[in-house]
C-alpha cells in the first residue's frame, strides 16, 4: 500500500507542495487526496482523513498518521535515508535540518504578503522592508549552500531542503521580487524539476480560483515556466 497525502489546491497550497516534494522527487509512491482550502467543508474533510485543521497530512502504509509537513519530512528522512533525501555529510545534513526548521517556523513576512499562486505572476507588487529582509535571508541561505554544492539545488541534487524552499522560490517569481542571479537560477531549477512541473500542471486543471489570492489591480502576467 502506498502513502496517502492529503493536499489542498495545487495552485495555491504551499504546504501541500512541500508535502508532495517530500515524496515524488525520491520516487516514493504516494496517492493524493485533495480537499479545498477555504471551502465550506475544509475542516470536516481534513478531520475525515485523520488530519487536524491543516494540509498536508499523511497516512503511512503501516497506519501512521502525520498531521504536519515537518513530521512528514522527518519520517521520510528516517525511512528513506538510502535515497539521498538529505545530504550524506553529517554537518550538511544538520544544516539542511536547520534551514528546514527555519522555513517551517519563519519567513512570516513573505508568507503573509505573497501567497503562493502558481497560475499567474503579478506585475507592480511593491514589497515591504520586511518582505525584502526575508528575500535577503533566503539569498543568504542559498549562497552558503550553493557555493559549496555548485547547485542546481541547495545541496547539489534535490533534497528535502529544496522541498521546503520550493514555495519560497515560486513566490519570488509570482511577485516579480528583486532577486540575485543565484536566486533566479534556483527558482528556475525548482520550476523545471519534473515533480514540480507535474504538480503545477495538475493545479492548472483546477477551475476555482481563490478570490483572496487575487492581487488586482496588479497586472496579471504569465507565471514563468522557463520552457521557451
Ligand atoms: N504547520 C503546518 C501548516 C500547514 C498549513 O498552514 N497549511 C495551510 C494550507 S497551505 C492550511 O491548511 N490552511 C488552512 C487553515 O489554516 O485554515 C504544516 O507545516 O503542515
Automatic annotation (TrEMBL):
InterPro entries: Glutathione_S-Trfase_N. GO terms for biological process: glutathione metabolic process; L-phenylalanine catabolic process. It holds the Pfam family GST_N_2. It comes from Gymnodinialimonas ceratoperidinii. The lineage of its organism: Bacteria, Pseudomonadati, Pseudomonadota, Alphaproteobacteria, Rhodobacterales. Residues 12-78 form the GST N-terminal domain. This is Glutathione S-transferase. GO terms for molecular function: glutathione transferase activity; maleylacetoacetate isomerase activity.
